[in-house]
Amino acid sequence: MMQVTHHPALYVLKRQVSEPVKRGPGQPAKYPLSDLEVGESRLFVGVHVNTICKRTSQHKPKKFRCVTVTRKGVVGVRVWRVL
User: Fold this and answer.
1) CB-side neighbour CA atoms (13 Å) of 32
2) Closest by CA position to 47, among listed 63, 27, 32
3) Which of 13, 60, 72, 83 is the one with CA 20 to 30 A from 37?
4) Into how many domains does the chain fold?
């Protein structure tokens, strides 16, 4: 039988750390896509293109196009509403 050794240096206990904010009814959307009209676009900085594209699928029957862009050294995802 294998013996398990716990190393106390691997675990850090922190007290009085605030909880992350939970999104619920009435909270603003993290990625506001539903208010885009056809032909409009929005740039999301610091987000991977796959994250945004997965979110666009939740807004059917609306259709979006997502492209990774670099502008002035800043990488982001530009999302266009196409339908």
Assistant:
1) 10
2) 32
3) 72
4) 1
Instruction: State pTM to two decimals.
Output: 0.65
8 band by pLDDT with thresholds 50, 70 and 90: low
Model confidence at 30, pLDDT cuts 50, 70, 90, reads confident
Phi-psi region of 54 (alpha: psi -120 to 50; beta: other; left: phi over 0): alpha
Is 73 a member of any domain? yes
DSSP 27: S
Q: Dihedral angle at the C-alpha atoms of 38, 43, 57, 23, nearest 10 degrees?
A: -120
Residue 23: phi and psi, rounded to 5, are -90, 135
- The secondary structure of residue 18, as a DSSP letter, is P
Query: What is the residue range of 64's domain?
Result: 41-83
